[in-house]
Amino acid sequence: MIALVGGFAYAGFSVFVDTRQVGESLALGVFAFLGLALLIALGFEFVNGFHDTANAVATVIYTNAMPAHLAVIWSGFFNFLGVMLSSGAVAYSIITLLPVALILNVGSAAGFAMIFSLLLAAVLWNLATWYVGLPNSSSHTLIGSILGVGVANQLLSGGGAGGTTGLDWAQVQKVMTGLWMAPLIGFVAALIFLFVMKRVVRKPALYAPPVEGEPPPRGIRALLIFTCTAVSFAHGGNDGQKGMGLIMLILIGCAPTAYALNRTLPSAATPAFIQAANGAAATFDAKSGGLDVAPAEARGVLTTALQAKTVDDPRVYGAVETVSRDLAARVGSYGALSNVPAGVASNVRNDMYLVLDTTRLMTKAKTASAHFSEPELKGIEAYQTMLESGTRFIPLWVKISVALALGLGTMVGWKRIVVTVGEKIGKSHMTYGMGASAEIVAASVILAAERFGLPVSTTHILTSAVAGSSVANGQGLQGRTIRNMALAWVMTLPAAMLLSGGLYWGLLTAVRVFGW
């Protein structure tokens, strides 16, 4: 408890220091609002810790490789380490699921309602499934919450197409594909892995149930501890980033001067940015046929293009050229992102966001090679890297706060999920080989997903791998548990969507009625 309070106090102190350094003074009400939002976001990661990481320690506990309390402390530490060494790619993969309008106006009433709704919905559903001992996925829950807010936002704003245009459905499809494929890969890979291991490593003790109260042989024990460590580290690296992305949205909305732009970039990077922006602008100008798009109109064109995912239009190319030249001129006049005045920081960030995501659609399209030469693509990619470094960053204190919440969460409340994974998936006790194969597969899949910026579910992957190893060991599966897990998987998305959508509607209604 002391560590949790200390971590939250550290986060609050860091916000105070960051805002003071850039001359931004937060009103007491805004600071309190920010504190509540951070508390809920860190609470989500804390719940994620004991809800999801229980999967990592179940194998070492049920094979007697480590005592339970030592296992959760060990796992908590490597979750912490995984968060600290993560890339940040998954954090912004989650954010891009949200409607463009809410991302650009995250400091509005709708933006704050969005953040609170999806966080509260995710925490409530995680707690509900933990209470009944179901190894449900925090990733699945969070994504469902984001989808619920997106659909509700479009319906409330009077959008067409049944509310579907409010979300980036291409990104949704990418993320959902990872969510449903990863467990399938986990099941098949663990089944094959253990089947091959039984043919290659002919050591009967590896495939027999552990003797109660006795630790496994030294070599097997070392292998099981290593796999537990790998899953814990991988879980921290992937799941911890989801909280980071949401915290960055909160910070951008409440304290845009300090967090809308990466003010740690040195002034020495400015000339390269101006050169890259003007070079890319010239390329887009040529593709537009010299079409002139006014700055005020250009931003609307890019916003519409991102929402509709249609960029193969001369006006879109012209709009990118206009905004890019404007960015080069403004950043050049300030000398560095650290010098951008408070009043325009959000506008500069939004312009960089619009250009970055629009150009990515252009360069990832199947027709990109027909539109751009190899040197042009390299120039655009260099420009995109600079735009990304200016807007998509994670302060060190955010990583530390999330790492503390996730690591400490691992050390409490783990038993309910551990019992399900260790006793209720296979029909008999977990063997050493089953535990090792399940965790080796799970760690490999999660680390690969983090490499490609895909948010995946540690819970789904590991429980599927345990099921696969049970089948390979000839044990069979407990039908009731598998049905309950499948039911939780199927119910999570609509339940989280209804929760977050309902909360979003309620909060916006309260804002309109009471004028908050």
Tags for this entry?
516 residues, 22 helices, mainly alpha, globular
Number of helices: 22
Helix content: over 70%
Please give the number of β-strands. Answer: 0
Beta-strand portion reads under 5%
Q: Report the sheet with the most strands, covering strand number, pairing sense and barrel closure.
A: none
Encode the helix/strand succession as letters.
HHHHHHHHHHHHHHHHHHHHHH
Shape annotation: globular
Task: Give the terminus-to-terminus CA distance.
Answer: 33 Å
- Class based on secondary structure composition and strand pairing: mainly alpha
Mean pLDDT, as a whole number?
A: 81
Give the uncertain stretches in residue-range form. Answer: 160-165
Query: How large, in whole angstroms, is the Cα Rg?
Result: 24 Å
Write the layout of secondary structure elements.
Elements: H1 2-21, H2 28-52, H3 54-62, H4 68-84, H5 89-95, H6 100-104, H7 109-131, H8 138-156, H9 169-200, H10 218-254, H11 256-259, H12 270-287, H13 295-308, H14 314-334, H15 345-364, H16 368-371, H17 374-391, H18 396-410, H19 415-423, H20 432-451, H21 458-472, H22 479-514
Short characterization:
With 516 residues, the chain is an all-alpha fold. The protein contains 22 helices and no strands. Helix 8 runs parallel beside helix 22 and helix 15 runs antiparallel to helix 17.
What would you note in describing this structure?
The protein has 516 residues and is mainly alpha-helical. Helix content is 75%, strand content 0%. Helix 1 (2-21) runs antiparallel to helix 18, helix 5 (89-95) crosses helix 10 and helix 9 (169-200) runs antiparallel to helix 20 (432-451). The longest helix has 37 residues, at 218-254.
